[in-house]
Amino acid sequence: MPATVVVGTQWGDEGKGKLTDLIAKEMAMVVRYQGGHNAGHTLVVDGETFALQLIPSGVLYGHITPVIGNGVVVDPGVLLAEIDKLEAKGVDCGRLKVSGNAHLIMPYHGELDRATERRLGKNKLGTTKGGIGPAYADKASRVGLRVQDLLDPKIFRQKLEVVVKEKNALLAKVYNRLPLSADDIADRYLGEYAPRIEPLIADTVSLVHEALDAGQHVLLEGAQATFLDLDHGTYPFVTSSNPVAGGACVGAGIGPRHIDRVVGIAKAYVTRVGSGPFPTELFGSVADDLIERGHEYGTNTGRRRRVGWFDAVMMRQAVRLNSLSEIALTKLDLLDPFETVKVCVAYEVNGERHEHLPYHQSDLHRAVPIYEELPGWGADLSAATHLADLPAAAQDYVAFLAEQAGVPIRLVGVGPGREQFVHFAA
Which has the closest alpha carbon to 35: 323, 238, 294? Predict the structure, then answer.
């Protein structure tokens, strides 16, 4: 049975959690394929809010096996705290599986992340300071510790002593930080974390292939989004992994022929957290209204998000990079009060019109959005359950976005609740 990928098409925070949760009804397995606990997914189920960081959204369904794939970096303390919070709310996490090949986030990763951001000052990247980037850097440098190392205390301590010696020299000589104790770290990871995590560790590549071979539906869930991709995003203001659909193959351990559906998640407007270019960024009262109506504050950090009008130039690039088969649009209801809404259909750079994303970052920083202005609908969409419930102007807006993107919009979110969506075929 082919797999489905869900990927963010903007700078994150598009509502992937809700749409993944919705699509997951049909699935037997949901796999997180990259990222770390810097990705927050918020779901509202029967009026109760669930904020997920590492655990795949499918955990809220009893028939689904949630899997943390090999492409994820895992902070075991964060993972166990998330499990405890979910189980306190009655959510069974016993089905969760964690790849033995996933890399561990260690205490020195967080120290280095925070120290680097402080040193960069006004040029900081805007990371969540959770150690995700340094953990991926160690993975690429081949000095990382993996989840499976928790199962072999001797190997764990040997690897840790070598790495901590190097990290302490860096922390002390470059960042003037106090050294970390390898023994203290080992005692915590092996004595506190390993006994609880060991039952969850699995050969997740085999689990995924067994599910596919059995004809079961598998959903591959990305964190962050297309324009935070290490290769294809607005570098260097990006994450340290590959959220694009191609990253799902690497992060879950399957080949591209296993994927036949790629769902791109997009907000009806655009947001981003942290630094970096943002051609359609809004300021003033319109921005403030969107931020307050949409509760546009980071799930993990609480940071206020930057907001802007929908960017069709970005969307066309996301369609290309991910081979999107369809789009699910979220938060259409947040535009309810506006008399008119704008869509960026092209950029002007140095007097030239660009309908596709400029490859050079300097051009993107200089890009001036070219807008099409559409009438608003001035109605509350939150109770809509069918296409006919949407005002004509709202339907026209969605149809215009689909036309600009070049792929159909199949689902439209009209509120935060699990069932607040409308099927749309544009």
Answer: 238
What whole-number distance in Å separates Cα of residue 327 and Cα of residue 6?
Answer: 10
Say whether 41 is catalytic: yes
- Average pLDDT, integer, range 318-343: 96
Query: Would you state the pLDDT for residue 426?
Result: 54
Taking the C-alpha atoms of residue 254 and residue 90, their distance in angstroms, rounded to an integer, is: 32
CA 259/CA 324 separation, integer angstroms: 11
Residue 13 among the catalytic residues: yes
- Strand 306-308 versus strand 270-272 pairing type: antiparallel
Name the catalytic one among 37, 41, 109, 217.
41
Q: Residue 353 burial (CB < 10 Å; 0-12/13-18/19+)?
A: exposed
Average pLDDT, the chain: 92
Give me the catalytic one of 13, 21, 113, 138: 13
Q: Cα angle at 74 between 73 and 77, to 5 degrees?
A: 155
The amino acid at residue 236 is P
